[in-house]
């Protein structure tokens, strides 16, 4: 598995094959674009391989723990091809913030990708 950081200050945990595909796509992007370089530095630069120990735990490197503000209690959020690892307090605060805000953009419209989605 591979751990990396996310702009929301959580960690992302990918199975190795999923990560390899994402890394390949990210590194094919032009490094002349400032936003692309930031993304490459953030995601690829912090990517760390990890394994489960005999008790099913993942050892998190101190810089990754510090980035995500992980203390004692963490939350593992399934996101399809990856997991997000959040500090429990941070997750509860962000979730409350998201639930109180509208799903819509500031201009009142849903992104085109979500307009046809039926939940």
Architecture overview:
By secondary structure, the protein is α+β, with helices and mostly antiparallel strands. 40% of the residues lie in helices and 17% in strands. It contains five helices and five strands, in the order ββααβαββαα. It is globular. The chain starts with a strand and ends with a helix. The mean pLDDT is 88.
Low-confidence stretches: none
- Strand fraction band? 15-25%
CATH topology title: Chemotaxis protein chec
The ordered string of helix (H) and strand (E) elements is EEHHEHEEHH
Q: What is the assigned CATH homologous superfamily?
A: Transcriptional regulator MraZ domain
Spatial gap, N to C terminus: 30 Å
User: How is the largest sheet built, in terms of strand order?
Assistant: 3-1-2-5-4
Q: What's the average pLDDT?
A: 88
How many strands, what sense, and barrel or not for the largest sheet? 5 strands, antiparallel
Tally of discrete structural domains? 1
Q: What is the name of the CATH class?
A: Alpha Beta
Count of DSSP E strands?
Answer: 5
| Helical residues, percent | 40-55%
User: From the alpha-carbon coordinates, what is the Rg to the nearest angstrom?
Assistant: 16 Å
SSE-based structural type: alpha+beta
So how many helices?
Answer: 5
Shape: globular
